Amino acid sequence: MIFAKENLLAALRRVEGNRGAPGADGLTTEELRPWIAQNWPRVSAALDAGNYRPAPARRVTIPKPNGGERMLGIPTVLDRLIQQAIAQILTTVFDPHFSGASFGFRPGRSAHQAVRVGRRAVQDGNRWVVDLDLDRFFDRVNHDALMARVARKVKDRKVLKLIRRYLEAGVMDGGVMTVTEEGTPQGSPLSPLLSNIMLDDLDRELFKRGHRFVRYADDVMIFVGSERAAIRLMASITAFIEKRLKLKVNREKTRVSPGFKATLLGFGYYLSKGEVKIRVSRKAVKRLKDTVRKITSRTWGVAMDHRMDKLNRFSVGWVAYFALSDSPRVFGEIDMWVRRRLRQAQWRQWKTASNRERNLRRAGTDEKLIRSHDLGGTRHWRTSKIKALEVGLNNTYWQSQGYKSFKDSWTRLRTA
User: Fold this and answer.
1) Which of 42, 59, 217, 408 is 20 to 30 A removed from 298 (C-alpha atoms)?
2) Which helix (H) or strand (E) holds 130?
3) Which residues, at least 6 apart from 323, have a Cβ–Cβ distance to it below 8 Å?
4) Segment holding 182, helix H or strand E
């Protein structure tokens, strides 16, 4: 069933659609289909005989949003195809039995659903949160413990053997092959499903104890009624995770906090007229500003229309995700800050006092206002706040330049 033609074709379309970088062998997604046409009989025979050997994944690192680096393993495109085919079938076996409080990497479920469930838990009086941090979860999963859980529902020994081989395939880093004795292949099509299989026991334990909780992959937030209950729960559930699941809880990052200070998937909660509402977290705004600073950097020597295109592409996706927020205020504040960043970049590009004066006049700035400022300064951020620029390069000006307002985009999405 896993390697039936229909399932393989669906997996192939998924891998091609996801594109992604090549693995250690350098084969790209564009080259996969013709390669399969010539070589699949040999691969199929190895899979059928149970002696197929996956290639090591290519090690890459990406920055984490909160600092540090996350290590990913990029399998070859052939191994991505095989893993995708396995994941498609095993999802139909495992997913219907997963907890209703699990939302990460599951069909028909989303981060927004998880945030809404968390809001309801806080609204119902669970005003304290245990925010669990599983230390390097994807790197620490015990292979024996994971395979024992897979084997509960998968009885085909060839499939179990193949999954084990993927877990142990190792990584190529700088031309050196390293064996993987623990962890799941993060960055592969199988990894999300395997993580949910591994943590399903945690979901069941929390459900058995009667707790309200939300889990999105390895992000776990448990809602309780008091600080004392939260402290007790943090200790007991940490013991369960480390003894039963053989995972490690990061005690420095796992914390108990009031529900209105906790954040989940970039969102937080606030109370308005007795009703719990959803807000954008401060960390999410900080990450946005880090990205916008790069796009609007005055030292980036690109035309303003190119800069605007990059900014709009980013803002459309950002607002689409954070439109779940009930508060428009933060979007208005972001607009004010972004427009000031754009004024600074524009001022830098105009360079000379005469050019700045001419362009301000074209923008409709009053002549007296232009004359009242020194237009030749180099303190661009400070200058971006002067009256002549605020009047000349106002909201209407930036709209004419193609700027897509964060607040306007939020309003359209909320009223659609």
Assistant:
1) 408
2) strand 128-133
3) 409, 410, 413, 414
4) none
Nearest alpha-carbon partner for 242 in 399, 132, 372: 132
- Tell me which of 281 and 300 has the higher pLDDT: 281
The average confidence (pLDDT) of the chain is 91
In which element (H, E) is residue 270 found?
strand 267-272
In a 3-state reduction of DSSP, which class is residue 132? strand
Which of 371, 368, 415, 362 lies closest to 392 in space, CA to CA? 362
Q: Cβ contacts of residue 397 below 8 Å, gap of 6+?
A: 363
Closest CA to 172 of 34, 79, 42: 79
Please provide residue 27's backbone torsions phi and psi, each rounded to the nearest 5 degrees.
-70, 130
Structure tokens of 308?
């605007």
Residues 22 and 31: their CA atoms lie apart, in Å, by 10
Give just the sign of the alpha carbon dihedral 20, 184, 62, 88.
positive
3-state SS string for 98-122: CCCCECCCCCCCCHHHHHHHHHHHH
C-alpha radius of gyration, the chain, whole number: 26
Alpha-carbon span 68 to 66, nearest angstrom = 7
The pLDDT of residue 253 is 92
Block residue for tokens 């020194």: 374
For residue 85, pLDDT over 60 is answered with yes
What is the rounded distance in angstroms from the CA atom of residue 146 to the CA atom of residue 247?
11
d(CA 156, CA 353): 76
Residue 118 in this model has a pLDDT that exceeds 70: yes
DSSP string, 190-259: THHHHHHHHHHHHHHHHHHTT-EEEEETTEEEEEES-HHHHHHHHHHHHHHHHHHS---B-TTT-EEEET
Q: What is the CB neighbour count within 10 angstroms for residue 205?
A: 16
Predicted pLDDT at 59? 81
pTM for the model stands at: 0.89
Structure tokens at 337: 């800050």
Q: What does DSSP assign to residue 360?
A: H
- Least Cα distance to 109 among 191, 186, 193 occurs for 193
CB half-sphere exposure, 147, CA atoms < 13 A: 18
284, 334 contact by CB (below 8 A): no
